[in-house]
Amino acid sequence: MSAREEILARVRAAVADAPDAPPATRDYRTTHTAPERIVELLAENLADYRALVHRTDEKGLPGLIASLLADRGSATVLAPPGVPPAWLAALGPGITRIEDNPDSTARELDLVDSVVTGCALAVAETGTLVLDGSPDQGRRRVTLVPDHHICVVRVADQVVGSVPQAMPRLDPTRPLTWISGPSATSDIELDRVEGVHGPRTLEVVLVEG
Amino acid sequence: MSGTYLGMPAFPVAAKAALGNETLRGNLRHATHTIRDKRAKAVAELDDWALLREAGKQIKDHTLRHLDRYLVQLEESVTAAGGVVHWAGDAAEANRIVAELVKATGETEVVKVKSMATQEIGLNEALEAEGISAYETDLAELIVQLGDDLPSHILVPAIHRNRGEIRDIFRDRMGAWGRAAPEDLSDVPADLAEAARLHLREKFLRAKVGISGANFMVAETGTLVVVESEGNGRMCLTLPETLISVVGIEKIVPSWQDLEVFLQTLPRSSTAERMNPYTSMWTGTTDGDGPSAFHLVLVDNGRTDTLADEVGRQALRCIRCSACLNVCPVYERAGGHAYGSVYPGPIGAILSPQLRGIGSEVDASLPYASSLCGACYEVCPVAIDIPEVLVHLRERIADRGGKGHRLEKAAIKASGWVFDHPKVLAAGERAASLTRKLHPSRVPGGAAWTDSRDLPELPAAPFRDWWKKNRGEKNRGEENRGEKNDQGGKNNRGEGTAT
Q1: Segments in chain A below pLDDT 70
Q2: CA of A66 to nearest chain B CA: how many angstroms apart?
Q3: One Pfam family for this entry, by name (chain A) (predicted)?
């Protein structure tokens, strides 16, 4: 008998006399947050886990991104192909935009200073951004290897209150990355330290209007 | 890594040694108290916690009851998404499968995401025997691996080490494994994390094979989920060309929606965060993004035996959050190593003897490594009644007539005879009081139970004698006939502080 058949047979024998266990009742809450509190809560929870939160409107976005990159002294910024050109329209002359080349190696990405992406959605109660690999978010590695990530959230249609509200809006066939604050570790005496392997600086731009 | 759990002494011996280590106790006390307080706050934010806990329990119970169906469904979903599913009955089979998969890539190095399942099967050692180096990339696992040490906690495996010890390990050992730590490395956590970042980035950027476990597998969609903080998981899951995930068969949830329960309860229970910094979800392979080959190795290794035990099977609901470790008074004092098992603490005390069987002395001792205070059950986000399983396993061990239990039974039998013969008891008490300076602090030559417990100090005089002298004038000569003493007892109620 193959390992597969043996394991399945053992499982069947093990539960043959077990009592019935029906599917779960879902009487927990769909959300814990009143709709008018959602955006504020998202901003608070992102900041609580040490993401840097900025707020602007469509018009102010290019200027804000340009100043965030300049303040950090970034010389190169990678933006996946689906990032609207307007977002990077105000970059100063010292900053070069790099396209994400599917053949680029992790070592090449390691030399990039900053990355700018959109997101699939954001979850207020947990302070979480979810990326799903859409053209404005790029491959998983582009938001991982560079040390500085600027993520743009469209408040009007991308913010949900809770995890249960997020699930039906996500497509499990896509690779998903949930990001809640920058890379952190608590492995040394349980002191939280930002940044071990992922970007050590996460800036979130909430775009209203 | 040469450290191994094989041949570890049974819990009482290991715990006694650990109790003498003041640094260890200090490190543990600080860590467990910090995290248990934070956890309580994180849980209090959700006023439907009890309902989420109940839903989590029900989802897992339903899955386990129909595990055969969900395993087959998962296999279909993963295969349809471009993955390859392998089945392993035990640790040796799982290790062989993984080693062959790595060899087929022509690589001799792999990077690893922290995984309880691969620790359980001893994968690193098995790969080493095949000439393959497995690099742990979680900061705590790196500390453990470089220190030639063993993990002592499910979530924070190096919880038993303080910053000074970690600095010494990095300074002394990093160079032998790759990029050395800076000469002047301090013990500031940020500097230690930076040294780990530089040391490991070198490995991530050249890795061709990654090995992971998974927190969840969704039968309906074939999606695997890894929950982590540092980004080392994301590195291992997305940069290599080949990804091999080694996962216990109990890690299934039926539907995509089920994740909404555990993504709320797991982070709050484990790191006390609303959400952990990074969660990765992948379904088979994706063109142009991440590994081009994905293998899922489904591991039994004692899980079907556990499933067959009607009381013990609830241990398979465990989502490895480690909340039970952090509230356990026994874990806090003894530390994770004393359990002689990959799974320490209360969950380890019920899971390890079920996965491995109760044949060895270590495993037979684990169900006794508890005060049955119930704190572990209170905090468990899937409501595993750990005390119930502990008592059940003690019964099973008793039925087998284990050595420790036979001694215990003999002791109870002997004391029963003494209690049935009051004059013998009275004489014994008097003799005990008169010789109390000579008594050992523990019962000599005893079993595990007595070894781990101090004897109470004996009073200068037996209570019977004190009673006779101070209160018992009317009842002199009748001290052995309880019913006659009722009157005096009532009159003196509330003053009974004599002993």
Answers
A1: none
A2: 26
A3: LUD_dom
- Supply the pLDDT for residue B413: 56
pLDDT in tens, A126-163: 999 999 999 999 999 999 999 999 999 999 999 999 99
- Kindly state the tokens that stand for A103: 């053949």
CB pairs under 8 A between A and B: 251
Low-confidence winner among A53-62, B35-44, B286-295 (lowest mean pLDDT):
B35-44
A129 in any annotated domain:
yes
pTM: 0.86
- CATH code of A112's domain: 3.40.50.10420
Superfamily for the B11-305 domain? NagB/RpiA/CoA transferase-like (3.40.50.10420)
Chain B residues closer than 8 Å to A20 by CB: 65
Name the least confident of A34-48, A188-202, B290-304, B376-390.
A188-202
- Within a 10 A sphere around the Cβ of A130, how many other Cβ atoms? 22
What is the distance in angstroms between the Cα of A103 and the nearest Cα belonging to chain B? 9
Residue of A nearest to B299 (CA): A7
Give buried/exposed letters for B325-346 (b at 16+ CB in 10 A, else e).
bbbbebbbbbbbbbbbbbbbbb
Spell out the alpha helix ranges (H) of B81-212: 91-105, 116-120, 123-129, 139-146, 163-177, 189-206
Lowest-pLDDT range of A116-120, B428-432, B439-443, B477-481 = B477-481
State how far residue A59 is from chain B, nearest Cα, in angstroms. Answer: 30
Percent of chain B surpassing pLDDT 70: 83
* pLDDT given for residue B419 in this prediction: 65
Shortest CA distance from B306: residue in chain A: A14
Q: Answer whether B143 sits within 8 Å of A187, measured CB to CB.
A: yes
What range defines the domain where residue A170 resides? 37-208
Taking phi first (over 0 means left), then psi (-120 to 50 degrees means alpha), and beta for anything else, what does residue A198 get? Answer: beta
pLDDT for the residue numbered B417: 61
Least trusted range by pLDDT, from B10-24, B46-60, B277-291? B10-24
* Range list of β-strands (E), B249-373: 252-253, 278-283, 293-299
Q: How far apart are CA B348 and CA B315, in angstroms?
A: 9
Calculate how close chain A gets to B190, using CA atoms only, in Å.
6
Backbone angles phi, psi at A135, to 5 degrees: -55, -25
d(CA B256, CA B254): 7
The pLDDT, as a whole number, for residue B487 is 40
A69 in a domain, yes or no? yes
Average of pLDDT values for B69-93? 98
Cα B158 from Cα B271, distance rounded (Å):
14
* Mean pLDDT, range B277-284, rounded to an integer: 98
A19, A29, A178 member nearest B279 (Cβ): A178
Which residues in chain A have Cβ-Cβ distances shorter than 8 Å to B34? Answer: 190
> Nearest CB to A188: which of B166, B278, B307?
B166
CB contact under 8 A, B258 and A32: no
In a domain, A31, yes or no: no
What value does the CA radius of gyration of chain A take, rounded to a whole number of Å? 21
In a domain? residue A181: yes
- Looking at the structure of chain A, the number of domains it has is 1
Using CB atoms, pick whichever of B89, B238, B278 lies closest to residue A3.
Answer: B89
Please judge whether A183 and B277 are an interchain contact, meaning their C-beta atoms are less than 8 angstroms apart: yes
Residues of chain B with CATH 3.40.50.10420: 11-305
Distance between CA atoms of residues B39 and B202, nearest Å: 35
pLDDT of residue B339: 94
Tokens of B23: 């640094």
What pLDDT does B495 receive?
36
Which of B221, B206, B231, B207 lies closest to B282 in space, CA to CA?
Answer: B221
How far apart (Å, rounded) are the C-alpha atoms in residues B178 and B174?
6
